[in-house]
Amino acid sequence: MGASDYGDDDDETSGPSWAPAIRGPVEEGIALLKTGEFGGIKPLLEREKLMKAGRPPPTLSQRLRERNMNRPGPVRREDISRSLVPNTHGTIVAKYTSNPYSGQYSADSSLYYTCVQDFKLHIYDTSAPPIEPTNTVDSHRNGGDHYTSMKTLNTIQAVRGGWTITDSHLSPDNDRMVYAHMSTSVFLTRTRDGANEQTELSLADQAPRSGGVWGYRPADQFRIYSCRFSADGKEIVAGGTGNLFVYDLQGMRRTVRIVAHDDDVNSCCWADSSSGNVLISASDDTFLKVWDRRSLGVHTKPAGVLVGHTEGITYVSPKGDGRYVVSNGKDQTMRLWDLRKMTSHSDWENLPSHHYGLGRNWDYRQGVYRTPRYDAHPNNCSVMAYRGHQVLKTLIRCHFSPEETTGGSYLYTGSSDGRIHIYSLDGQIVQVIDRSKSLPISFDPSESEPNMEDRAGPRQRRHYGIFHRPGVVRDVSWHSREPVLMSVAWGAYGDDRGDVAKHEWKDLGKRGMKLEDVVARDAQKGDDHSCATLGGTRNGSIPGGFPQH
């Protein structure tokens, strides 16, 4: 962790020059798709069968009609929406006077929330219509600290500590929020409470004060960087300076403390959305560790270790099934892990104590990554690796696409080059969204896209309010039921002003129509087999679909 340094890097290329270009789907990724653990495989097989026969894939309206006529029971949302990947550069929907560190939808996507370096937490109602757009952002002023075209439910002034809020998370019922700010505590607050009441949850060991004075003081010092509610909302897992903690919200006490890593724990999570027994920690020591709480009373050893990154790990995110997690690393690689294939603790202890990265003096915050000595740890146990984005300057986050609409078959991440990268499970880059081309807040994100060529020149860029690309896209969130992304980006070249953009799926061939417009158009065309063209795909094939042989 550290304050970000910005260089004058004007390179427009995407991805590391040393990484081999992905020319087609990777066999290991195809095998994962065939397991059925990342959504149904029947629609993919049907589509590939049509393409091999030289027949065009059905339009959206044709798929809907076919399902309604031939399939008993309700239509699965995934069957219709799996191929709909957000494909627009988006529209700014919130602007801040400081850089945002995270931005996520709630589990049901009814809320969207951000935490900002000025120690403000913003919570928005995503079900409300946007404020009527105008040509000036002044009309969107909200409390003097940011502009937004979204309905703001609450802006919370956090307790100050460190230089920023490093993480925040909503409870499953959307009623509470927990956040960390690089102290020995996390803080609990209500999402809709105008009184802004906050509760400090100390994770430190307590010891009597010296000199016989009644009271207690922290017996140790560390910093918390990451915090997450459990699926039932009764516990919080937190990670920090080498440690992993669990806090019981019913008993209001810390129940678990593990000296987990030799370096900072930048991120932590629960592996599944049901039991709460398995914890994952991700550290700057290059390892992810898997902890089974059922055995922690006997020993404090991890159940296993995920070995593969050669530099520190910035983020870990679970699929929610207790099997798969995805991580971002400072080795410019996103890795997919199957917990069933983790390295045992005893085998990990016997590995050579060797650093496989660029060297101890390399600092990712400087924004330069040289050609690495190793593509992966020699004992790599990850099942897939994804390259093309940049993990520099700050702790870039990554996630699985929604289970309900895509089966979790895409992985997506922010990037320090100011872009959003969406990967198919099979290793291919499906979509790259450039935040430098996001429209200003005066535009309605749901309206049709203006002609991209109109924004190519300096005069047009000034007209639309687009002056330079963002320095970093730090976090991205995919709506659980719609093909919509929200991204938080930092200002470029040391500019501390960040923003949020909304990126929808639109049919780019016809003035950027939304899903319902495309269905209506296709229904009018009847048997016309024209198909919406998704950016980043060819021949209408579902991204992540099986290759033709």
TrEMBL record:
InterPro entries: DCAF (IPR051859), WD40/YVTN_repeat-like_dom_sf (IPR015943), WD40_repeat_dom_sf (IPR036322), WD40_rpt (IPR001680). GO terms for cellular component: Cul4-RING E3 ubiquitin ligase complex. PANTHER family: DDB1- AND CUL4-ASSOCIATED FACTOR 11. Residues 1-22, 524-549 are annotated as: Disordered. WD repeats lie at residues 258-292, 306-347. The keyword Disulfide bond does not apply. Keywords: WD repeat. Residues 1-13 have a biased composition (Acidic residues). It comes from the Eukaryota. It comes from Hydnum rufescens UP504. This is WD40 repeat-like protein. It holds the Pfam family WD40. GO terms for biological process: proteasome-mediated ubiquitin-dependent protein catabolic process.
